[in-house]
Design goal:
The structure holds two protein chains of two kinds. By secondary structure, chain A is an alpha+beta fold. Helices cover about 40% and strands about 25% of the residues of chain A. Chain A is built from three helices and four strands. Chain A has helices spanning about 10-25, 40-45, 70-75; strands spanning about 1-5, 30-35, 50-55, 60. The radius of gyration of chain A is 11 Å and the shape is globular. By secondary structure, chain B is mainly alpha-helical. Chain B has 17 helices and no strands. In chain B, helix 6 (about 125-135) runs antiparallel to helix 7 (about 140-155) and helix 8 (about 155-165) packs parallel to helix 14. Chain B is flat. Classes of the chains: A alpha+beta, B mainly alpha. The interface of A and B includes residues 44, 46 and 64 of A.
């Protein structure tokens, strides 16, 4: 599973990344997390709110810090 | 496990119960808020002169009383306004705003863009992706700028603070003139036909229209959304508010009456442009600058000059230019700053003239 957290490095984006990492650790899901901070790359995903979470090329949420339970659901746990 | 944690999977009765509980908490909260708000003036006096060994009528006393009164007052007002606007914002998303604006003609589009700028959730760190999203979806450049000018300038923090510190009239003037600048500056930029001054990669960017599932929010969710906004925003700005009020308190107690009249008064023609120029490199948010502004007004500064200063600090900031440079060529940035600065000058002179 490939997870991408998009965000230029604002507080919310960092929080989102931490949360995703935490959920992965807790659930033991095999996933790779990548943080994308480059504006051009962020734009290429077509999202315009940050932070955004993309899992296997599917946009899961934009413009807010997701809830832990939501992340678990996306990971199939 | 899902059924335990996600309210939407629970029975209807349970949701209603939770909602009733939340509404009750909100009602009690408002009542407690109101009661505390009423006793603040007496409380600050008592703290300053009875609890602390400060003499009534001294410079220090005047400063300390100002600080002890304004800090809790501003915090409480912010709390209420951010919560209320948070609930309103739960009805809007950047995606919906974009879809709405992409079909609008220019002038009408500018007006809607400025209005939507107030209520659409926005963070300056996502200004660039948002800009790209708007432009690639066919929102006219000028309309996009109306949104980008209004969103940071006319916000709930500024309005809440102005209302609390300077009264509803100043808050209304700020709202009206802020919208006016966003609409007219965006319209002018649209007329100038500068589309070719957007960086090339932007127009080639993926304009995919994402179908992100629209979440159905219950009132319960909206209350939680408002509460989250309070935690997030107050957590971010409280330090600026306190610093701003501390500086304001210092000015209030120690700067002689009327000294600002000569610098930011209405009689000197250069006070408005000077206020704008000083404001650009200053990077502060509404939370930090408004308590200072209140103190300046008390010392004889004219409302027009002070409005110009405040708008310049909030709407034109160097860090934002740096961010926007990624999508705009230098000439377009210069036009953007120039047009907005002209709008601010106009507002400044107008209010120095009529008040």
């Amino acid at each position: 599973m490939e997870i991408k957290v998009l965000g230029p490095g604002c507080a919310k984006c960092n929080k989102t990344e931490k949360l995703v990492q935490q959920v992965i650790k807790e659930t033991g899901v095999d996933a790779k997390v990548e943080k994308i901070t480059d504006m051009m790359q962020i734009a290429s995903y077509g999202v315009f709110g940050t932070p955004s979470v993309i899992i296997d090329n599917e946009v899961k949420c934009t413009g807010k810090v997701p809830k832990k339970d939501d992340i678990k659901k996306w990971l199939g746990k | 496990m899902e059924s335990e944690t996600n309210p939407s999977f629970q029975g209807k009765g349970k949701i209603n119960k939770m909602m009733a509980l939340n509404l009750l908490i909100v009602a009690i909260g408002v009542y407690v808020w109101w009661t505390v708000y009423q006793v603040l003036p007496d409380l600050s006096k008592w703290l300053t002169y009875k609890l602390l060994p400060i003499q009534e009528g001294s410079h220090l006393g005047s400063s300390v009383e100002f600080f002890l009164y304004d800090t809790p007052k501003v915090m409480m007002l912010l709390f209420l306004v951010v919560f209320g606007v948070g609930i309103i914002r739960s009805f809007f998303t950047p995606e919906k705003t974009r879809a709405f604006l992409s079909g609008k003609s220019e002038f009408v589009g500018n007006i809607f863009a400025a209005l939507l700028g107030i209520v659409t959730p926005f963070c300056s760190c996502s200004a660039v992706p948002l800009f790209i999203g708007f432009v690639t979806a066919g929102v006219p450049l000028g309309v996009t700028f109306s949104f980008l000018i209004a969103a940071p300038m006319v916000n709930e923090i500024a309005l809440g603070l102005l209302y609390g510190l300077l009264g509803w009239k100043v808050a209304a003037i700020y709202l009206g003139t802020g919208l006016f600048i966003a609409i007219s500056a965006g319209w002018v930029i649209g007329r100038l036909k500068l589309e070719n001054h957007i960086e090339d990669w932007v127009t080639q960017a993926n304009a995919a229209n994402l179908n992100i599932q629209e979440e159905k929010l219950t009132w319960n969710d909206r209350i939680i959304y408002g509460w989250d906004a309070v935690k997030e925003i107050i957590g971010r700005v409280w330090i600026y508010v306190i610093l701003g009020i501390a500086v304001g308190a210092g000015i209030h107690g120690f700067v002689p009456e009327g000294v600002m009249a000569s610098i930011m008064g209405k009689d000197s023609w250069w006070s408005v442009p000077l206020s704008v120029v000083i404001g650009i490199p200053m990077y502060s948010n509404a939370a930090g600058v408004i308590p200072v502004v209140e103190a300046l007004l008390g010392k004889g500064a004219a409302l027009g000059s002070v409005l110009a200063f405040m708008m310049s600090v909030i709407a034109l900031s160097l860090p934002e230019m740096v961010i926007l440079r990624k999508v705009l060529k230098p000439k377009l940035i210069a036009v953007f700053v120039g047009v907005v600065a002209c709008g601010i000058l106009f507002v400044g002179y107008l209010f120095n003239m009529i008040l």
